[in-house]
Design a protein that fits this description.
This protein has 722 residues and is α+β, with helices and mostly antiparallel strands. It is built from 23 helices and 21 strands. The strands form four sheets. Strands 10, 11, 12, 13, 14, 15, 16, 17, 20 and 21 form a ten-stranded mixed sheet that branches. Strands 1, 2, 3, 6, 7, 8 and 9 form a seven-stranded mixed sheet that branches. Strands 4-5 form a two-stranded antiparallel ribbon. It is globular and about 105 Å long. It binds adenosine-5'-diphosphate and magnesium ion (MG). Adenosine-5'-diphosphate (ADP) binds next to strand 10, strand 12 and strand 15. It comes from Williamsia phyllosphaerae.
């Protein structure tokens, strides 16, 4: 049950900050102490075994199963020294959450408990009951077998708990037919597909010695913090992770005084502790600051291989929630916990690279001469244009719909921002050939004591969903609570397709006798002519862009229900099948799971809305109405004018709440659908508007009912008391 608003406020104001852990080890010494990483392996494994496992981690060479026993044994010894009593295969089901199945290292029998052998096969494969994870019809409940398989490329780690530690082993999760039931398997497959095509392209540029091309990801994570007492006083946040009610605060973010403002002490304490925990797990947390809204913050790690970044991102969200709890706060990762207040996203920065050449998206100072870079950029431009609908679908969820397609960054239309310098180079290419690059300027500060600062060759554009930011692209549409797997799978796969296309074009032209540089020019010109429509450097929030984008033929998929069916269109089905990332069945299943989750999310929100309206808001309003009516009777009896406009307004709002509540309840009652698509369409078209009506009436009541009777902590209270 929840606590009352009064109790919450009292408890929050009595909060005292936990003592700062100054005695703890320096941050640098903590990095990776809980990780069975390469340095731990090097210390503990025979040289030949270490060499083999390194080759698997770094170059994706298949793991030699004969070394599994040796690795498992070393890992177990390491984990037990770290206080672990159990081990868990960690996997990433289609819900987007992280799942764990724990087993004990100890084997209890009649004579007591002895240390179990942790064999190679136990490390390599597990078998959790898969029947309670969504699978989109890939498996009937009678065929419950699912397997977890060790992903050697992601290191095992220790998860601490005051009561005992656990060795966590990152795995993939597949059905007994070998179909992917998780977010990790397609990510690994897409990385491999992209790498294969990128190596092919690099060969054309004379780089024959490249072993692999890696996609990198760095995800900036936005989040809110509220005091835990408010959390426990808001049943809507407890069940749905967002507020379903709440009038706009008198002071919102109009003053722009929170962004990059001084971090409140209590929050800073949390952030310092969080960094320490993340470091222990080898997660390279780097940047922290306030975000736009009050109570909103951001954390950015240093980018890593996207497969590893994915696992780290999942673990990071878990650790954020845990550390917040230790500090008496709740960390909200929902995309829109507070209506009318800035929402939270997860900007996924990505690039490609390898150990020989570094970052392949680095333009250098003269991008017009860096043809290899331009070809990779062209691949991205083509991919984003051709598969914009797929990219949109890859970030679709009930919660992210509150950002995309609503009046918030970024819009649901997927376009690319190139920045001034690169745009100019592609403009020249379109006209026949690039001969110069705009130089980056020097900022004149007008203060003699300050050295001149170098300006970037292009400004930023905050409204673009897909922006070139100097040496990487930033996909800004993913949701704050989302796994980065879906967007990275989409990006890797469309890159595989585009790079394949460009490499084939170049091969064909050169085979016909065209000189290589001329062939590159032809291909670049073709891409910019055919796909330039996706480039947009203007204001993505403006209404004019909605019209222009439509004229350019760009999709504007506002809701999940609009976007997700696109996933399984023939074109996308072919794409995923061609590169071995997802079979048609796997793709179809994923589509159904997203829609099912969407419908369920909204159904739960609708039920919670009805319950709070009925059991908390309506009673408060009726009590107040009774009080005012009683006063009117006394006032009249005293021979005075008893007309009270407040009572009239209140009664109108009470009636409105009653009517809208009745129709919401009817809507919930009638929830149905023959398919996931029908159910989610019903949720979109019937439940969402019905909830909105209840909310309007309830929020009106919040501004009318006496403050001492109002049951829910207000936006002002939750967002500003920390
Ligand atoms: P900004 O506020 O400019 O977006 P942040 O420092 O908040 O920058 O975050 C930038 C993110 O981009 C970080 O996670 C960073 O590691 C990541 N990043 C930087 N360079 C690359 C790259 N080459 N590839 C992928 N991600 C990168
Ligand atoms: Mg940032």
């Amino acid at each position: 049950g929840s606590i009352s608003r009064r109790e919450a406020i009292k408890a929050v104001t009595a909060h005292s900050t936990p003592e700062c852990a100054t005695a703890q080890a320096p941050l640098a010494e903590l990095f990776g102490v809980n990780v069975f990483d390469k340095s731990a392996m090097k210390d503990r494994l025979p040289k030949s075994v270490f060499k083999k496992i390194s080759a698997t981690i770094d170059e994706g060479i298949a793991l030699d199963p004969t070394i599994a026993d040796v690795v498992a044994n070393a890992m177990k010894d390491w984990a037990i020294e770290k206080g672990a009593s159990h081990y868990a295969h960690v996997f990433y089901p289609l819900t987007g959450f992280t799942a764990e199945k724990h087993d004990s290292f100890l084997e209890p029998d009649a004579s007591g408990a002895s240390l179990a052998e942790f064999q190679g096969k136990t490390l390599l494969q597990g078998e959790p009951d898969a029947s309670s994870f969504p699978n989109g019809g890939l498996r009937g409940t009678f065929e419950a077998r699912g397997y977890t398989g060790w992903d050697v490329t992601s290191p095992a780690y220790i998860l601490e708990n005051p009561a005992g530690n656990t060795l966590c082993i990152p795995t993939v999760f597949i059905s007994w037919t070998g179909e992917a039931l998780d977010k990790k398997t397609p990510l690994l497959r897409s990385q491999q597909a992209m790498s294969k095509q990128a190596m092919r392209l690099l060969k054309l540029f004379g780089h024959n010695d490249v072993d692999t091309v890696v996609s990198y990801a760095g995800a900036e994570q936005e989040y809110f913090l509220i005091d835990e007492h408010f959390y426990y006083a808001r049943p809507d946040i407890m069940t749905t992770s967002r507020t379903l009610f709440g009038a706009k605060p008198s002071k919102g973010q109009e003053f722009d005084d929170h962004y990059f403002g001084a971090i409140p002490d209590r929050v800073l304490g949390f952030m310092i502790d969080l960094d320490r925990e993340l470091f222990k797990h080898g997660i390279p947390s780097k940047t922290r600051h306030n975000e736009v809204a009050p109570g909103q913050f951001e954390l950015a790690p240093v980018f890593e291989r996207s497969v590893l970044a994915h696992d780290h991102q999942q673990l990071m969200m878990t650790i954020m929630k845990k550390v917040a709890e230790n500090h008496g706060m709740t960390c909200l990762l929902h995309e829109k916990p507070f209506a009318g207040v800035n929402g939270s996203g997860k900007h996924v920065n990505f690039s490609l690279g390898n150990s020989n050449q570094g970052n392949l998206l680095n333009p250098g100072d003269t991008p017009h001469e860096n043809v290899q870079f331009l070809v990779f950029c062209a691949a991205i431009i083509r991919g984003v244009h051709k598969y914009g609908g797929l990219l949109r679908a890859s970030v679709a969820s009930a919660s992210n719909d509150h950002r995309l397609g609503a009046n918030e960054a970024p819009p649901a239309i997927i376009s690319i921002f190139l920045g001034e310098q690169l745009m100019d180079v592609f403009d020249q290419i379109a006209k026949g050939g690039a001969t110069e690059s705009k130089e980056s300027g020097v900022l004149e500060l007008g203060v003699d004591s300050l050295p001149p600062m170098k300006a970037d060759p292009g400004d930023r554009n905050r409204t673009s969903p897909f922006a070139f930011t100097g040496n990487r692209f930033e996909f800004r549409a993913p949701g704050s609570n989302q796994s980065i797997s879906d967007p990275m799978v989409a990006i890797n796969t469309i890159l595989a397709d585009s790079i394949d296309f460009l490499a084939t074009e170049l091969e064909t032209l050169t085979a016909d006798g065209t000189e290589f540089n001329a062939a590159v020019q032809t291909v670049l010109q073709k891409v910019i002519t055919d796909h330039g429509a996706v480039i947009f450097n203007g204001d993505g929030y403006a209404d004019a862009w909605q019209e222009e984008a439509a004229a350019r033929g760009l999709k504007n998929l506002r809701t999940t229900v609009d976007a997700v069916p696109f996933m399984a269109e023939k074109e996308n089905e072919d794409l995923f099948e061609k590169y071995g990332v997802l079979s048609a069945r796997e793709l179809e299943a994923r589509k159904d799971v997203i829609l099912e989750q969407y419908a369920l999310t909204i159904l739960v929100e609708a039920k919670e809305t009805a319950e709070i309206a009925k059991t908390m808001i309506l009673p408060a309003a009726l009590r107040y109405q009774g009080e005012l009516a009683g006063i009117a009777v006394s006032v009249k009896a005293a021979g005075l004018d008893a007309t009270n406009p407040l009572l009239t307004d209140l009664s109108t709002a009470v009636t409105a709440l009653g009517t809208s509540l009745a129709s919401l309840e009817k809507g919930i009652e009638a929830f149905h659908g023959e398919s996931e698509l029908e159910e989610s369409t019903y949720a979109l078209e019937t439940l969402i508007p019905a909830m909105a009506e209840v909310r309007v009436a309830a929020d009106t009541l919040e501004s009318l009912v006496a403050d001492d009777l109002w049951p829910l902590p207000t936006y002002n209270e939750m967002l500003t008391i920390l």
